[in-house]
Amino acid sequence: MPNPVVESSVKAQAHRKRALYHHFLRALVLSAGVVGCSLGLGILGYHFIAGFTWVDSLLSAAMILTGMGPVGDLNSNAAKLFAAAYALFSGVVFITATGILLAPIFHWVLHRFHIEQRDLR
Predict the structure, then answer these.
(1) Which residue ranges form the domains of the chain, and what is each CATH number?
(2) What are the residues whose beta carbons fall under 8 Å from the beta carbon of 112, sequence distance 6 or more?
């Protein structure tokens, strides 16, 4: 005869695992959206402000967003100011995207060790 307590525990564990995957997938999509919008903003800026071609704009925006550094020469002051602002913005986007991705994992760890809000005070 099956033990109902064990079956209930197994079902609850499977539900928690599915919930973790669901939360992580949602965080992944949100993080990808933040990075994608930031990349699009960089592409537009490099194309219209710096005068780069679309492909060069994509390359420059992706390199700055990933922290690798600039690729093309910036000839105008407006382009240099945009590149500086976009580099600072990219650092904030990196921290934000990392936080969004790690939030479900930290939440799961807190639940795993039964850390309640009152325990954190």
Answers:
(1) 17-120 (1.10.287)
(2) none
